[in-house]
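cache lookup: miss for this entity combination. No prior model stored, computing from scratch. Input as submitted by user K.M.:
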Amino acid sequence: TQLLEQSPQFLSIQEGENLTVYCNSSSVFSSLQWYRQEPGEGPVLLVTVVTGGEVKKLKRLTFQFGDARKDSSLHITAAQTGDTGLYLCAVATMKTSYDKVIFGPGTSLSVIP
Amino acid sequence: GAGVSQSPSNKVTEKGKDVELRCDPISGHTALYWYRQSLGQGLEFLIYFQGNSAPDKSGLPSDRFSAERTGGSVSTLTIQRTQQEDSAVYLCASSLGRVSTDTQYFGPGTRLTVL
């Protein structure tokens, strides 16, 4: 059983459409991060959310942390081909001596011109 | 400034051979992570370094995998007697290592193919 679930696994949309992807868990987290990974590159951090109910905007991307801090969503308005990539959510889980970061399986987004 | 670099970018090897993958983190970053990513999948944690020590090796799949970090900087991941199931992209990341929410900066990865 994975700590984090992401849905959908794959998404293919036309340029200009809106979309929402989700990151869910049964556990509560102190913070959650979203990364985007383009083909052939490593993931790049987009945002960190720390407060239940928090909403952050990054240009056409809107991130929301659930009130209970168990889930998060990423909404993209008017998708562009440059938004194509793998979207990963990640959380820190308390270990004995440090907070270990766990990544979800990702949502692979393809934006078609 | 320079980001995280990894070498080689691609490695093709025969089953049973040993391989070494290298990671150069961002200067001053005390935390270093290795991950493995199969085609189109999420990141599988392998090992975490704080300085030269590895408090968490729990993600290493078998005793064929080992990693070291010297001088609090460069790290090498060694896979002995490679198997076909070891084929994947191996990613390295570094961070300031102060708190868990410190941004992890990733390298471009090494694509390993075991024939």
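stored under new cache key. Chain B touches chain A through 23 residues (CB under 8 Å).
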